[in-house]
UniProtKB/TrEMBL annotation:
Span of domain FAD-binding FR-type: 27-148
Protein's name according to its UniProt entry: Siderophore-interacting protein
Entry-linked Pfam families: FAD_binding_9 (PF08021), SIP (PF04954)
InterPro entries: FAD-bd_FR_type, FNR_nucleotide-bd, Riboflavin_synthase-like_b-brl, SIP_FAD-bd, SIP_fam, SIP_rossman_dom
Coiled coil stretches, renumbered: none
Length: 279
């Protein structure tokens, strides 16, 4: 049995179960090459990576994260070291930034990551200037949280940083899935094409001139959700950590959705560089 077959069987078991579970994969460290850079809406850049080591990459579910590794301020590229199925990051720790896997194709030998473009971000500035042929190291993912397909409804909510995960999730859902997806963006130019099941209602929320991470639009929209009596709902929300506090309370206290049936992740925090993801 190949590794991929074993992971597929483990994932299929969780998909048919009652609650989500993390399926671990060996944490890889690959050197990859930039193949293409394509804008997706006005706020995202999709970078497609390739190279022979892409075949060693494992990616199976929407909410997976990898780390791109960059040279330190002294210009030295420090890489983590393999320790069995794990990576040892050492001290000084290599400079890295965490991103969601948007697409991985074993057949095409490609990996897509979408970068939110914003001033002052290390990875964002790298993404806006990088050209095809550039090499970079990618570490991870360390596994993924697999969500069963047995819930009655699904509630997804996030800002632009969560959009790649939401987009991947919507296109992979069974076509008879029902639920809600709320996505906060600055305005219409940041909206992108999505492929949701017909029963999942997608609502774009326009923040306008408000700075990212300062709006309560997402929380107010989520608070409008009405769950039918007896329905089991899975809730997933991601974005700026502070903006998620009210959403977390509503999901847990008002909707009565517990930790086994939800994942609420702070992807970033205003004023904090390389924020360590908060669940």
């Amino acid at each position: 049995m190949t590794d991929r077959t074993a992971y597929a069987e483990a994932i299929a078991e969780v998909l048919a179960g009652d609650h989500g579970a993390k399926v671990p994969y060996p944490i890889g460290l690959q050197e990859v090459e930039v193949l293409r850079v394509v804008p997706v809406g006005s706020a995202l850049l999709r970078i497609t990576f390739g190279g022979p080591e892409i075949g060693q990459f494992h990616s199976y579910v929407p909410d997976e994260h990898v780390r791109l590794i960059f040279p330190s301020e002294d210009g030295v590229l420090r890489l983590p070291k393999r320790e069995g199925a794990m990576l040892e990051w050492g001290n000084p720790r290599p400079v890295s930034r965490e991103y969601t896997v948007r697409r991985h194709s074993v057949e095409d030998g490609e990996l897509d990551i979408e970068f939110v473009i914003h001033p002052g971000g290390l990875a964002s500035e790298w993404a806006t200037s990088v050209t095809p042929g550039t090499k970079v190291h990618i570490a991870g993912p360390p596994g993924g949280v697999v969500i069963p397909e047995t819930y009655d409804d699904y509630l997804l909510a996030g800002d632009i940083t969560a959009l790649p995960a939401i987009a991947r999730w919507l296109e992979r859902m069974p076509r008879d899935t029902t639920g809600w997806a709320f996505i906060e963006v600055a305005g219409p130019s940041e909206e992108i094409p999505l492929d949701p099941p017909a029963g999942v209602r997608v609502r774009w929320l326009h923040r306008g001139e408000l700075a990212p991470g300062t709006s309560d639009l997402l929380e107010q929209a989520v608070r409008e959700v009405k769950v039918a009596a007896g329905h089991r709902v899975y809730a997933w929300a991601a974005g700026e950590a502070g903006c998620l506090r009210g959403i977390r309370r509503f999901i847990r206290d008002d909707l009565g959705i517990g930790p086994k049936d939800s994942l609420i992740a702070g992807y970033w925090k205003r004023g904090v560089t390389d924020f360590d993801r908060e669940d």
